[in-house]
Specification:
Blueprint: E1 2-5, E2 8-11, H1 20-27, E3 46-49, E4 52-55, E5 68-69, H2 78-85, H3 95-108, H4 114-120, H5 131-139
Helix pairs in contact: 2-5
This protein binds FE2/S2 (inorganic) cluster (2 copies).
One FE2/S2 (inorganic) cluster binds at residues 89-95, 126-128, 130.
Length: 143
């Protein structure tokens, strides 16, 4: 199986039926992608495939048909700094998925309204309840 992740090409001997989240974490060591519910409900495992958010825990690695971007590929994105500035990180477990989803949003819509942010981020659950600060981070991501 071939997989393009953060601009690098990987040839992997991955059993059919393995989730993308598992491959990223266990085979490629990209542990920034978190697994929480492992059932497609929480958004912790969100990555982008060709710029579109995808829940990697319910995506079969063999079915991936584009370039994968994980949180490690977004290290330099201004959203990371914006999340810190807005104090939008508490336990931090949901944060990689939040940033990955937000990066897809601002790529398509650089100045989203609160309503658009809520809509785009609805699949990312935060058990610490930092939603207002996450919104603030996305509203102010350009500094
Ligand atoms: S871990 Fe994938 S949606 Fe919750
Ligand atoms: S910061 Fe703890 S789950 Fe979101």
């Amino acid at each position: 199986m071939r997989l393009s992740v953060n601009g690098g090409e990987h040839v992997l001997d991955t059993p059919v039926g393995t989730s993308l989240a598992h491959v990223l974490r266990e085979e490629l060591g990209l542990t920034g992608t978190k697994i929480a519910c492992n059932e497609g409900h929480c958004g912790a495992c969100t990555v982008q495939v060709d710029g579109v958010p995808r829940l990697s825990c319910i995506t079969l690695a063999h079915a991936v048909d584009g370039d994968v971007t994980t949180i490690e590929g977004l290290r330099e994105h201004p959203l990371v700094e914006a999340f810190v500035r807005a104090d939008a990180v508490q336990c931090g477990y949901c944060t990689p998925g939040q940033v990955v989803s937000a990066a897809a949003l601002v790529a398509a819509n650089p100045q989203p309204t609160r309503e658009e942010i809520r809509h785009a981020m609805a699949g990312n659950i935060c058990r610490c309840g930092t939603y207002p600060k996450i919104e603030e981070a996305i509203l102010s991501w350009q500094g």
